[in-house]
TrEMBL record:
Pfam families: Glycos_transf_2 (PF00535). Keywords: Glycosyltransferase, Transferase. One of its GO terms (molecular function) is glycosyltransferase activity. This is Glycosyltransferase 2-like domain-containing protein. Belongs to the glycosyltransferase 2 family. It comes from the Bacteria.
């Protein structure tokens, strides 16, 4: 028997059917019963859709037909879930596996406080499950132009954002502030922007410390790849243009720091991608 608010779990797949199937396998062990899963395939050109449907025929797969980016792909699933009348939406990276109590813990936090607009999980590294990757989210430094994940509980004032690797969104909050900004953030910083918009509208962020999720991280782009560097820096520039009192400062300091690291590591492709990404972020509208 299904009890509790309805939750739609949105998994975004892009050439990652192995991870997505492993994530779906773990979701089957959830102790929360009133949930539905939607897989959004974001324009994969491999046989991801066929393999996911064969492994989990019970999970609907929505095909976008092209890569809409993280924000755009997730929003396809979010819109469908809202149309179906869901109470909550759980954005969950497909390169994760979840503890059986992960969803129950998040819903309990959200239901206990109507002022909470989003709830995060405690993320651990999938390849090193004793090490914390993020305690829900982190904070943004407008002096250094960097964001930093928290590794332990912090006062609510220091919880600037929740990471979209695992985030439970309330329907009322979504209806008030809108979805992820797919027109500005193709990939990276979209969750930070969404969190800032929530907080500006008076909603609070929370972390469910009993919601445990193991996350591989950067499975789609590859850790240290030029593609990651490009999109991260493009989105960083757009974020600080939108929120920083003096945007030139955090953009300059943050970009110089990342360029310096790539020089020290002899990473020429990353150096070039960082420059190109920042330039693109400065050119396009906020």
């Amino acid at each position: 028997m299904k009890t509790g608010p309805t939750v739609y779990v949105i998994l975004l797949n892009w050439h990652g059917w192995r991870d997505t199937i492993a994530c779906l396998d773990s979701l089957a062990s959830l102790d929360y019963t009133n949930y539905h899963v939607l897989v959004v395939d974001n324009g994969s050109t491999d046989d991801s859709v066929t393999r996911i449907r064969a492994a989990h025929p019970e999970a609907p797969v929505i095909e976008t037909g092209r890569n809409l980016g993280f924000s755009g792909g997730c929003n396809v699933g979010v819109r469908r879930a809202l149309e179906e009348g869901t109470d909550y939406i759980w954005l969950l990276n497909s390169d994760t596996t979840v503890d059986p109590q992960a969803l129950t813990a998040m819903v309990a936090i959200a239901e206990a406080d109507p002022g909470v607009g989003a709830v995060g999980s405690v993320l651990y590294y999938l390849d090193s499950p004793k090490d914390i990757q993020a305690w829900g989210g982190g904070e943004v430094c407008f002096w250094s132009g960097r964001s930093r994940h928290h590794l332990n509980p912090v006062p609510s004032a220091r919880l600037h954002y929740l990471t979209a690797a695992s985030i439970l969104l309330g329907r009322r909050a979504l209806e008030e502030i809108g979805l992820l900004d797919e027109n500005t953030f193709f990939m990276y910083w979209e969750d930070t922007d969404f969190s800032f918009r929530l907080r500006k509208a008076g909603w609070r962020l929370a972390v469910a410390d009993r919601s445990i999720v193991l996350h591989r991280e950067h499975a789609a782009t590859g850790k240290g790849s030029p593609l990651l560097d490009y999109y991260f820096n493009e989105s960083a520039a757009r974020f600080f243009r939108r929120y920083a009192p003096i945007a030139a400062w955090p953009i300059s300091i943050g970009t110089l720091g990342r360029l310096g690291k790539r020089i020290l590591r002899g990473n020429l492709p990353g150096f070039v991608a960082t420059l190109h990404g920042t330039y693109s972020g400065l050119r396009k509208n906020r």
